[in-house]
Amino acid sequence: MKIDGVPYRSVWVDPEDGWSVRIIDQTRLPWAVEILRLTEEKQVAHAIKSMQVRGAPLIGAVAAYGLALALRRDASDAALEGVAAMLGATRPTAINLRWALARMLDALRPVPEARRADAAYAAAAAIAEDDVETCRAIGQHGLPLIEAIAARKTGKPVNILTHCNTGWIATVDFGTALSVIYQAHDAGIPLHVWVDETRPRNQGSALTAWELGKHGVPHTVVADNAGGHLMQHGEVDICLVGTDRVTRQGDVANKIGTYLKALAAHDNNVPFWVALPHSTLDMSVRDGVREIPIEERDAREVLEVTGQSWDGRVQTVRTAAPGSPGLNPAFDVTPARLVTGLITERGRCDATEAGLLGLYPEFLANVAAE
Predict the structure, then answer these.
(1) Could you list the active site residues?
(2) Which of 69, 129, 300, 307 counts the highest number of beta carbons within 10 A?
(3) Residues of the chain under the 70 pLDDT cut
């Protein structure tokens, strides 16, 4: 994707030195585009924890490069296992992180120490390229949903409601749910996106709105609680969201507030579709509400807000009453019964075990073993 006409990905190896890793600091968006240079695994861990990089697919790819950085200094078995465990503990809910590190470990354990660093960079690059192609394919498989709505609304835009950020800066490129939107827009389909602000970190109003604006996609930022009202009045044709983990029965863990959107969509007969790459599937979990660990972040994110003042300064101010405590669960789980369907790189399916196994039959052996 592009920023002001310049193509970018969300993570890349610096071509000048051939080994350090570059990322876009997402805590500085949308007010500034700042590129960070990462040279060691501790910087990578901080970038993931502080949400300088965020989005389930992206943190997996960045963690893979973090392991490669560490192995340049120490390629021993102990370093390989220890750094992977350290990076894997940075965020608990998104399964892509564990998936990427497990893939790295499988690739690197058999490799002699003298060749491990080079092999790690190659394995990390393969994960990144896999994500790019996966997200492109997700957009292609979701596009017919938008085309079908557009065919019924001749001369009127398709109104899409989304939550959080599922675009190219949440992946290596293209995005998941936003990949569908970008490809529909690029195909010339008139559309308009309702962008949930996504409190408390405002990934919608800060990141999704920034992405859509840079790509020329018509959009409007709305308060998180406005979605139900818009659906009641026929202003939403389809909900498109991403996810950080999908269970074998189709439950979906996503940014806090997704569950409430799904309830409103169900009550108003609005299709609720979830876009995901294969790395987001967790077939070891059946009941998402009971089994998925939900990350709880710093309560200050709820009690404070960061924005740009009229004089251009970026400031953080307290919005809650002095002395009031806060609670900050970062995700919630939407039960499969509220999900119209899943959009993957292999196609679309029902949010059911049978639907997922129809697209991913390689999981059948594991399911049968249980």
Answers:
(1) 244
(2) 69
(3) 365-370
